[in-house]
């Protein structure tokens, strides 16, 4: 599930980046309501192809620079969000909603840790810090947008499915100014794609190293000329992602299910060891670096409950009544992934999978 989730999420991030790029371009209009880029399926896929190649190239050729890129992304995020928030609130060409609307109005319409030093401590700290940083950055981004939010029903009818460019253009009243404010978001999406690509390649490498993937000797090879990166594993994940992207030509609704199934698979992968640990009396965590005692049991129960909620939400249709264009294929894709994973384990993994190394460091 973890491998399927990583590949699906990487695919989704790069595809969303391509769709968001088209939406940003289309704030420049040939005539009112008509963007300069049609955004046909082949155009979306070609942009997706370019972004995928870019993220893989940066991850492969700039491996030693990735920590610097991620650190810069933190400051880029905060600076970009502050600039965006101040600008749209200051200009607000079409007016601002009051605080009551913003805060009370509702419309009814961990990563892989193989390369981390001392992962039992550092990964735990990173997971907790990420929650606080993303909460702060998310509120800093969303609250100003709600203050200048145009008609919600119009946003829901957007063919692109990308309301942020429209909201920002409505607030600043200028296509050029809106595009300038969107550049930081575009860059962040690319950086996110780079990080997802890097994580997925390490995930494929780790599974190959442990004998969980056929032809593992090939996928476990590292390229010493490129700072010892698992280049073969990276190319495998890239090819699988590009192949899955072809589904977009046939059925966009089915393709969009990969975003939901990525979240479901990763959530199940994270929750599985928690559930096993809880139902076996938490006997294996007493010597852990962050042993919480009774509070740990409560945390485990909350985590499992949250997992069940997330799975339910991501399996629900986007609207009712359910039609061929609104049905959610995520449950189907998830069940298919579970069945295929089970078959692969029975046919290959049972005899060849040896499990990850246990050293911490």
Automatic annotation (TrEMBL):
Molecular function terms from GO: transmembrane transporter activity
Keywords: Membrane, Transmembrane, Transmembrane helix, Transport
Single GO cellular component term: membrane
Compartment list: Membrane
Primary location class: membrane
Keyword RNA-binding: no
Pfam families for the chain: AA_permease_2
Topological type in the membrane: Multi-pass membrane protein
InterPro entries, alphabetized: AA/rel_permease1
Signal sequence range: none
Keyword Transmembrane: yes
Sequence intervals crossing the membrane: 6-28, 40-61, 73-92, 126-149, 179-208, 229-249, 255-279, 291-320, 326-348
Protein name, as recorded: Amino acid permease
